[in-house]
From TrEMBL:
Residues 248-286 are annotated as: Disordered. Residues 137-242, 277-333 form the Protein arginine N-methyltransferase domain. GO terms for molecular function: protein-arginine N-methyltransferase activity. Keywords: Methyltransferase, S-adenosyl-L-methionine, Transferase. This is Protein arginine N-methyltransferase domain-containing protein. GO terms for biological process: methylation. It comes from Eucalyptus grandis.
Length: 334
């Protein structure tokens, strides 16, 4: 439950404003109620909840940012409403049930360094039946990408350095550039086809055991002739009440519907049953950028694809045994 994102929090306007909108949209469920903010960071979400009329807000964070959060609460004359608890959700004591859990728990690749485990613990320890969790659900996507500029900048540079052939450096350059997943921003133009749903998380029902290993089989059909440089991953989260939290099948089927409709434009990639009702924070390439950007897994060597060529394989994400907030990625493709 150590804090990952407090230092990013306020400057990420897309994220902060979406959370604020979600709190105001659910004000009737927050006003006069008890809230827990899991991994409160600077305390901004706790303050938004207090401004929305919460009776009491427990702002919990294991890192030392909790000290600053407490000062922020005092400076805004909210000490009677917002109680900062410096400690892990698993360890702190709250002597009452709560009506609402709010958390900015998402990590890179959704689950890397995420605090979802702490949200689950808070839910199971304190949340009243029928209580509200914000965000309510999350979906991780993957798609094949082409990114010649990135490959050229990192690799092709070594073929001719001031007229000197340094191609002997290529294997090392590829290892340095692509051995680890990269956090960077791409555009919708880099994406070769419709995304695949890797994992849907319903925050009302997800268990700690579900997070230990996530496996999916994928099949893509490239929409264009282009070099395949790797795969991009991104996620979105929705802010619904318990009754409207969609099932995994609903999310997946909306994508299948899109992928079979070749005339569907890029902006419709995230079709939903009730798009007007869903408040969504998206980190997709075609949406406004956030500090999460996209997570890229690059190949050492690109694969030339023809239009309509199939790419299939499997992906497994497993929690590290040393630290459950770290992840191992096993990717197979043909």
């Amino acid at each position: 439950n150590a804090r990952r994102g407090g230092r990013h929090y306020v400057p990420d306007r897309v994220r902060t404003e979406t959370y604020r909108t979600a709190i105001m949209r659910h004000q009737s469920s927050i006003a006069g109620k008890v809230v827990v903010d899991v991994g409160c960071g600077t305390g901004i979400l706790s303050i938004f909840c207090a401004q929305a009329g919460a009776k009491r807000v427990y702002a919990v964070d294991a890192s030392d940012i909790a000290v600053q959060a407490n000062e922020v609460v005092k400076a805004n004359n909210l000490s009677d409403t917002v109680i900062v608890l410096h400690g892990r959700v698993e360890d702190v004591e709250i002597d009452e049930e709560v009506d609402v859990i709010i958390s900015e728990w998402m990590g890179y690749l959704l689950l890397y360094e995420s605090m979802l485990g702490s949200v689950i613990t808070a839910r199971d320890r304190w949340l009243k039946p029928g209580g509200l969790i914000l965000p309510s659900n999350a979906t991780l996507y993957m798609a094949p990408v082409t990114h010649s500029d990135r490959y050229s900048d990192s690799i092709d540079f070594w073929r001719n350095v001031y007229g000197i052939d340094m191609s002997a450096m290529l294997p090392l350059a590829k290892q340095c550039a692509f051995e680890e997943p990269c956090i960077e921003t791409i555009s919708g133009e880099n994406v070769l086809t419709w995304p695949h749903v890797v994992k849907h998380v319903d925050c009302y029902t997800v268990t700690l055991g579900e997070l230990e290993s996530v496996t999916t089989k994928y099949k893509f059909k490239s929409m264009m002739r282009a070099p395949l440089h790797g795969f991009a991953f991104w996620f979105d989260v929705e802010f619904n009440g318990p009754a409207t939290s969609p099932t995994s099948n609903q999310v997946s089927s909306s994508f299948i519907e899109s992928s079979n409709n070749q005339s569907t434009d890029v902006s419709q990639r995230k079709k939903r049953a009730n798009p007007s009702e869903a408040l969504v924070l998206s980190t997709a390439p075609e949406d406004p950028p956030t500090h999460w950007q996209q997570t890229m897994v690059y190949f050492y060597d690109p694969i030339d694809l023809e239009q309509d060529q199939l790419i299939d394989g499997s992906l497994t994400l497993t929690q590290s045994k040393e630290n459950r907030r770290f992840m191992n990625i096993h990717l197979e493709y043909t």
